[in-house]
Amino acid sequence: MSDTSSVAYGSHASGRSYLVEGGRYSGILSWLLTTDHKRIAILYLISVLALYFVGITLGVLMRLELLTPGETIVKAQTYNAMFTLHGVIMIFLFVIPAVPAIFGNFCLPILIGAKDVAFPRINLMSWYLYIGGAMIAVIALFTGGGPPDTGWTFYAPYSLRTGTNVTLGVFAAFVLGFSSILTGLNFVTTIHRLRAPGMTWNRMPLFVWATYATAWVQVLATPIIGITLLLVILERFFGVGIFDPTKGGDPILFQHLFWIYSHPAVYIMILPGMGVITEIIPVFARRTIFGYKAIAYSSVAIAALGSLVWGHHMFVSGQSYTANVIFSFITFLVAIPSAIKVFNWVATLYKGSILIAPPFLFALAFIFLFSIGGLTGLMQGALSVNVHIHDTYFVVGHFHYVMFGGTAFAFFAGLHYWYPKMFGRMYSQRTATLACTIMFIGFNVFYFTMLVLGLQGMPRRYYDFLPQFQMGHTIATVGSWILVTGLIIMFANLLMGLRKGERAAADPWGGKTLEWQIPSPPPHENFEEIPVIDRGAYDYD
Amino acid sequence: MFSGAASTIATKVDSAFLFILAICVVMLLLITFLMVYFVIKYRRDKNPTPTNIEGNFLLEVVWTVVPTLLVIAMFYYGWIGYREMETIPEDAMAVKVTAQMWSWSFEYDNGTRSDELAVPINKPVKLELFSRDVLHSLYVPAFRIKKDVVPGIPTSLWFTADEEGTYDVLCTEYCGVRHSAMLSRVVVMPQDRFAAWMAGKVTQEAAEPVGRELLESQGCLGCHSLDGSRIVGPTFKGIFGRKGLVLTDGAEREIVADEAYLRRSILKPNADVVVGYPPIMPSQEGILSDAQIDAIVEHLKTVK
User: Fold this and answer.
1) What integer pLDDT is reported at residue A13 of this predicted model?
2) Are B16 and A384 within 8 A, CB to CB?
3) What is the chain A residue with the closest CA to B139?
4) In A124, A163, A164, B104, which residue has its Cα 20 to 30 A from B191's Cα atom?
5) Are residues B200 and B248 both part of a single domain?
6) Which residues pair with A365 in a beta bridge?
7) Are residues B130 and B188 in the same domain?
8) Is residue B178 within 8 angstroms of chain A, CB to CB?
9) Looking at the complex, does the CB of residue B260 fall below 8 Å from at least one CB of chain A?
10) Mutating which of B52, B56, B153 best tests the A interface, going by the most A Cβ atoms within 10 A?
11) Phi and psi dihedrals of A17, rounded to 5?
12) Span A294-308, mean pLDDT?
């Protein structure tokens, strides 16, 4: 606790909004040097969204290129750089940090009745590492041999031989890793040490459980990608033969090391999103969550089992038969805790008193899209089927259902849910509903077509395609236009709400968790007095 | 199912897929139906007072056990098909496949080479995969087979084609700028036509090597154009006698592309790299015979 009290600046719990009361500094410095978890969340919100727009733009341009066979708008080398950047930006700079760094930072301390995270200065440093990593990634585009063209997976030996600026690109991911590790460390410590009196583990909101499970994976798995990327840099600079077979190295070793992190990273990406959904559903059903413990422990089960399935990315890599069979089996097991969550969410609607509002609509869209993402995952977990669809558009469709339909829709759900708390204003709910509907339609036109293209045999990372895939590519590109229209409406509506939105009450949705018991926007130190908790998080009686 | 199954394993892959698909569709419909039904039935104006239900142990057990059984069935179904994919019959006809940026080359037991894979119908064929540079992956959608081609580590796969026709061969492991152009075909033919095809290939190879055909079958044209356009390497158009700057051990010098230079560029491509182009061409030493190199050089003289 001593750490939090040491950062209590100025008058104790002044009661002024955190947007006004910045602490020790004023002006822009009160943001750039802030240690307030809520302000850091806003810093992340702005920077993550800025990079998300870059990622979306690249995605839309790629779809435009694929509208017709041959060259449509760019050359092959440019296209290859585009999908590499799209992947790196979306994964390392958007999907991984979006929910934990923005909502985790903003809500986690409040949800457990704390004034801040355990290490507020390290929290700020994490943001600077994030910005540093992002800037290095940008510099990598314009220096050396041009933007990296390896795909976000940096597979050896291609990544060791290409003349493009892989070294700097990899270094950016390395720096971003530290941002992720430190955030995870901060959250684990915060949850262990700073829970309010009476906030037992089984009274914690389920978003906190999800963030807790995620934080452990961040702390344990991220160092492996750090070391792996460092080895790539070593090999490129000094010619040490670790992954390049012509120097005695092993390209399969790279894949193992890469996926030992990058598969658990998938759960870093989705678990916090699941946590957001778990917060939203009981509030709009106005009843307690169904199966609290099942949802809480399934987060931990997903994190644990998810760390043991990386080999399912390598079924056709030449990995041993036995390894493939074992990895396939464990992969199927991970489906169970995910299914349990979905069933409990649906059961929570039973006999509720349901208010249909934008956060809830996004949550429903999440359940549908994530279910398709999960179920198509089962198809790929089956060994013989995987051989056919591995590295095709089926995989691309699948992970967009999970990462975009899952994590990003959960992120949008959270954004619409906590927006009145974060900014003290309300957006137009009608426009938000419209945007959600358009996005949902565009999303399915776009990515369901990708699943079909994959089954037809369309390989991923193809600049050009054979005539039999023309129809699918056209439909997918049209879908991308619908989807992006919805996105533009959604973000425009949220921006308008900042200036013109109605003032929001402390608890506009009727939530029972702690963030709704304090003013909107919350005061600098969250609570006048640390609350004493005597009931569960979703106590609606 | 999709893109017409044309191998014995393909039907098994498809049936495993359909089995899983059926379960998935039922699950998705069930979840979606309940979700929509509850939202309509219990919306706030119809049901203002909610009922708190904290959980139900029996339900939790049911929806843990049932999915567990289902996924184990899916695992098993996927596994048995895969077991067959990985059990290569002893009598399979072996073909050595060499992948390089950005072409495929198929070599039969008798040393015959082709840039397309011709195979007899209803006969097991084993493909032994080798890469000369980076990772590639051999994929025949119609056969539902795929395997990575890993430099330094031999891999293999097999199939029995059971439908005559011509099918696409695609590279599915990203391998650089012309990845999507790294295509070939499998031609499935009756045994007697295959024998005739093979005999024709053998006579063709015994005859004078033809430069133009070599450029195609060896994948040269994947990177070097004949019409002056830039692909990855310098164009062949007007190459003979052309003056140009090359990098030799990091130092620029001017050369004339004479016979000796062309020969050296085939055997030691990275000794003199034309300025402005990446040093990525693999050496053809031990792959092309002297007679073949002569034929290529002679042909290049004529590409104006």
Assistant:
1) 45
2) yes
3) A388
4) B104
5) no
6) none
7) yes
8) yes
9) no
10) B52
11) -55, 145
12) 89
Distance CA A506, CA A529 (A): 17
Q: Which of B181, B206, B231 finishes a domain?
A: B206
The DSSP bridge partners found for residue B108 are B95
- CATH number of the CATH domain containing B161: 2.60.40.420
Of A328, A353, A462, the CB nearest to B79: A328
Please tell me if residue A324 touches chain B, with a CB cutoff of 8 Å.
yes
Residue B128 lies in a domain: yes
CA-wise closest residue to B176 among B105, B102, B115, B235: B102
> Can you give the C-alpha Rg of chain A in angstroms?
23
Is there a contact between B266 and B284 (Cβ–Cβ < 8 Å)?
Answer: yes
**For residue A110, what are the domain limits?**
18-517
**Chain B window 182-201: which residues touch A at a Cβ cutoff of 8 Å?**
183
CB pair distance less than 8 Å for A288 and B27: no
Q: Give the total number of structural domains in chain A.
A: 1
Could you tell me the CATH number of the domain that includes residue B287?
A: 1.10.760.10
Contacts of B82 in chain A (CB under 8 A): 324-325, 328, 383-384, 387
Q: Note the ipTM here.
A: 0.87
Q: pLDDT digit string (tens) for A423-465? A: 999 999 999 999 999 999 999 999 999 999 999 999 999 999 9
Classify residue B298: in a domain, yes or no. Answer: yes
Could you read off the pLDDT of A90-128 as tens digits, one per residue? Answer: 999 999 999 999 999 999 999 999 999 999 999 999 999
Whether A464 contacts chain B with CB within 8 A: yes
From B85, B101, B128, the end of a domain falls on B85
Residues of A in contact with B31 (CB under 8 A): 342-343, 346, 367-368, 371
B-chain CB neighbours of A388 within 8 Å are 13, 17, 141, 144-146
- CA within 13 Å, CB half, A484: 18
Averaged over A415-427, what is the pLDDT? 95
* Closest residue on chain B to A282 (Cα): B52
Residue A481 lies in a domain: yes
CATH code assigned at A176: 1.20.210.10
- Residue B184's φ and ψ, nearest 5 degrees, are -155, -165
- What is the reported pLDDT for A1? 35
Domain that holds residue B145: 93-206
| Contact between B77 and A367 using a beta-carbon 8 Å cutoff | no
Distance CA B153, CA B155 (A): 6
Cβ under 8 Å to B: A residues 157-216: 157-158, 161-163
Q: Are residues B117 and B71 in the same domain?
A: no
Burial of A228 per CB tally in 10 Å (0-12, 13-18, 19+): buried
Measured CA to CA, the distance from residue B212 to residue A369 in angstroms comes to 53
- Same-domain status, B221 and B259: yes
Q: Determine if the peptide bond prior to A259 is cis (ω within 30°).
A: no
- Cβ of B173 within 8 Å of Cβ of A379? The answer is no
Distance from CA of B16 to the nearest CA of A (A): 7
Q: Which residues have CB under 8 Å from B28's CB, separation 6+?
A: A368, A371, A372, A375
B125 and chain A: CB distance < 8 Å anywhere? no
Q: Do A354 and B42 count as a contact with CB atoms less than 8 A apart?
A: yes
pLDDT higher than 70, residue A70: yes
Confidence of residue A2 (pLDDT cuts 50, 70, 90): very low
- pLDDT per residue, tens digit, chain B (304 aa), is 456 789 999 999 999 999 999 999 999 999 999 999 999 999 999 888 888 888 889 999 999 999 999 999 999 999 999 999 999 999 999 999 999 988 899 999 988 888 899 999 999 999 999 998 899 999 999 999 999 999 999 999 999 999 999 999 999 999 988 999 999 999 999 999 999 999 888 887 777 667 887 887 777 887 888 888 887 788 888 888 888 888 887 788 888 888 888 888 888 888 888 888 877 787 887 778 888 888 888 888 888 7
Tell me the C-alpha distance between B147 and B171, whole Å.
10
Mutate to test the interface with A, among B68, B128, B179, B182 (most CBs of A within 10 A): B179
| Whether residue B215 is found in the same domain as residue B293 | yes
Q: Say yes or no: A367 contacts chain B, CB-CB below 8 A.
A: yes
- Are B97 and B202 part of one and the same domain? yes
On whether both B53 and B122 belong to a single domain, the answer is no
Total tally of structural domains belonging to chain B: 3
B265 within domain boundaries = yes
| A76 in B contact zone (CB under 8 Å) | yes
